[in-house]
Amino acid sequence: MTRALLLVVTVFLLAGCGTHTSWQDSQTHIVRKGETLFSIAWRYGKRPEDIARWNRLGDGSLIHPGQRLALNGPAATGSTRATRSSQRRDPKPLPSIPAQPPPKWSWPTSGRINVEFGAKPGTGTGVLINGRTGQAIQAVASGRVVYAGGGLIGYGKLIIIKHNDTYLSAYGYNASLLVKEGDQIKKGQKIATMGEGPERKPRLHFEIRRNGKPVNPRQYLPAR
Fold first, then answer.
1. pLDDT in tens, 148-173
2. Pick from 47, 49, 45: which is nearest to 59 by CA?
3. What are the Cα distances from residue 53, in Å, to 57, 85, 89, 93?
4. Rounded to an integer, what distance in angstroms lies between the CA atom of residue 57 and that of residue 147?
5. Average pLDDT for residues 193-217, to the nearest whole number?
6. Rounded CA gap, 190 and 177, in Å?
7. How many angstroms separate the CA atoms of 160 and 104, rounded?
8. What pTM value is reported for the model?
9. Which helix (H) or strand (E) holds 122?
10. Looking at per-residue confidence, does 45 or 85 come out higher?
């Protein structure tokens, strides 16, 4: 292969790679109608508190469609122009959020884990627990519902519960949701009923996220 042809092939391959930027590689996000700070953070594997701090959003409740949000801290975003929503410089350093200990977890439903963390079918960010349609889904620990809806592709009807500033749990593929955003939830409280997951089988998609990143639930759920 001549040097000129090799150069052309290399440029083509690099261009092709550039067309498949993943959510995780993105630097910014434009808010769409119906999105919340928690749903955006969930999509990108970030902590909502971090996105709020990076964009000077206060408690994060004041986002609106069309708003552009930086998805990385100042050190990571560098000189990008995409942080127009936070152009005003604050001379004070962004405060860090200390890690908090995990709560005492319980299982979200009866049934065995059929698909392990990182495996398919499913999103790979949690586990799939077998059951029957309509089976009770329960909160694994006390907390506050920060998302309840069907707006996140790949999760069906989804509930996300915030337990503290470090840990979240999520329950997907539900047939019905029995709680709404803002509800305070007790450990063991029934929050949903089981629906159908991948392959149209009754399953619960269950996740635990630490600082926005998915972790293997088996490391936290009690033995049974």
1. 998 888 899 999 999 998 999 999 99
2. 49
3. 6, 12, 12, 10
4. 18
5. 93
6. 10
7. 17
8. 0.72
9. none
10. 45
